[in-house]
Amino acid sequence: MLKIAHHTAYIHPLPEGHRFPMMKYELIPEQLLYEGLVKIDNFFEPELVDRQIVYLAHDKQYTDDLLNLRLDPKMIRRIGFPMSESLVHRELYLIDGSIKASLEAIKTGVSFNTAGGTHHAGKDFGEGFCLLNDQAVAAAYLFHEKIANKILIIDLDVHQGNGTAHIFEDHDQIITFSIHGEKNFPFKKEKSHFDIALHDGIEDEEYLNILNDTLPKLFDRVEPEFVYFQSGVDVLGTDKLGKFNMTLEGCRLRDSIVFQNCKKYKVPVEVSMGGGYSYHIKDIVNAHVNTYRTAIDIYDL
């Protein structure tokens, strides 16, 4: 059975000015249920993860300052959210959701977190509305527990996964791969193990050819035992922040390429949703729901 992490805390702690794009965290499960793609039993509620687990990927001082609401004003500005206990708890739920979804993926081949993909949070900093990095902590957890000894993080959000790259810059067993906009945020890029920076306005055919050419070679080279997929839909041409010009179908085919390679190489994959900032919420939700639909079809779930 496909398992999907979801918690009401994913949306409610967010400041008022950020509610519109974050409505997707409420609407995605509703749409999945409405279309009959999943049932209530497919969802599970994560818990607050223990800070000792957070330390596996994040600096202890930064983590403690964040969890105790004592970050300095400069860091808070860098993050972009006013701090609150409920917002910090949201990050802890996200991490637990991605960890438990990872364990479920080992059973079924694929699993999801309806939120997450907080890839701008680095080892000792938050940035771009990301406080802690859910997939990075989950990857570090699998490695620490010897559940997976070689892990590949595939980040196809339009923005570079700079935080993830920062966390694992000196790690030779957790490998980071990012395809992103060369001239988009973050303007100071970190160095992933593998980076492909693309020009503004790129369309489906060119993007998909690059991905199709790159992924099999990457799987052959890395030989991962587990994959994390950051599936941001801000690659769409309708996105306010994206600067790419991909269609809904192109985004779906992107996801299909990732899932087909994971299945071909028999590597389980956990999916966190990442970004999406189109003017119309339906464009965001439809693109994300396509990711689920594609996985369900490919894995026959």
TrEMBL record:
The keyword Repressor does not apply. The keyword Manganese does not apply. Signal peptide: none annotated. Residues 18-290 form the Histone deacetylase domain. Keywords: Hydrolase. Belongs to the histone deacetylase family. This is Histone deacetylase.
